[in-house]
């Protein structure tokens, strides 16, 4: 199943047009303020020096000393990972983001969905999303370093890790050589998903292969310019992290208190709640033109991203109380 959040077309087809509040994704709704971009960001093909500057900014932001490869979103990296080696047996920690298994299967990999890291031992490739989407499970860098020694290649998707730097394997990546690849999203934490920017952190041989597979101009000029600036803005990052952590606790309390939906798990960008009947819960909120995410593998789980403005918070509270 390659279903995703952000599918407002489906919401509108069922529940009509209107002023929709899209909480079906884990994207920060108070995005990084867009700067005025130089004209060449739009009119010229990206040059190597600008791309290298973006990748240096990403390396500093993520705390890694190894190569960083900029790509058109973490999704672009997910599509390339299955091509890093001949197909074999892959283990994906489940339930999790469904594109990992789908991309691997499309390239001929045999994919096993496993419940915990211990079941991954011996796999040619293992995928862990940390923090996990949608149940918020987390693993320490020590746990992941140990796992890396028991599988052929470890893929750690840290798309939701920006507000949780203590979970990141990036500062320890150099110890793992070519045995691990870390994927990072830009659009989720910075709220600029439309830029299509993400990164792969890896060993030098893997980086060279990813660059060949991605081809020239894998990242556009506007994404390079905005990403370089945003990744270096430590004040914004600290303030945003504090807000997101507080807002996640607020959302969890609101869902439990107003609707009686206890939290299954959460990160700093979403809360997954146990509703009893996710289809009915989603439809209830959709009647107020608030869109959420449910999952085919659990009939009770509903995931909500964070509202942004106080107006959005009040709108959600009213829908839950109604």
From TrEMBL:
It catalyses: O-phospho-L-threonine + H(+) = (R)-1-aminopropan-2-yl phosphate + CO2. GO terms for biological process: cobalamin biosynthetic process. Its EC number is 4.1.1.81. Gene3D superfamilies: Aspartate Aminotransferase, domain 1 (3.90.1150.10), Type I PLP-dependent aspartate aminotransferase-like (Major domain) (3.40.640.10). PANTHER family: HISTIDINOL-PHOSPHATE AMINOTRANSFERASE-RELATED, THREONINE-PHOSPHATE DECARBOXYLASE. The gene is cobD. Its cofactor is pyridoxal 5'-phosphate. Residues 54-320 form the Aminotransferase class I/classII large domain. This is threonine-phosphate decarboxylase. Pathway: Cofactor biosynthesis; adenosylcobalamin biosynthesis. Transmembrane segments: none annotated. It is an enzyme of class 4 (lyase). Keywords: Cobalamin biosynthesis, Lyase, Pyridoxal phosphate. GO terms for molecular function: pyridoxal phosphate binding; threonine-phosphate decarboxylase activity. Decarboxylates L-threonine-O-3-phosphate to yield (R)-1-amino-2-propanol O-2-phosphate, the precursor for the linkage between the nucleotide loop and the corrin ring in cobalamin. InterPro entries: Aminotransferase_I/II_large, CobD, NHTrfase_class1_PyrdxlP-BS, PyrdxlP-dep_Trfase, PyrdxlP-dep_Trfase_major, PyrdxlP-dep_Trfase_small. It comes from Paracoccus haematequi. It comes from the Bacteria.
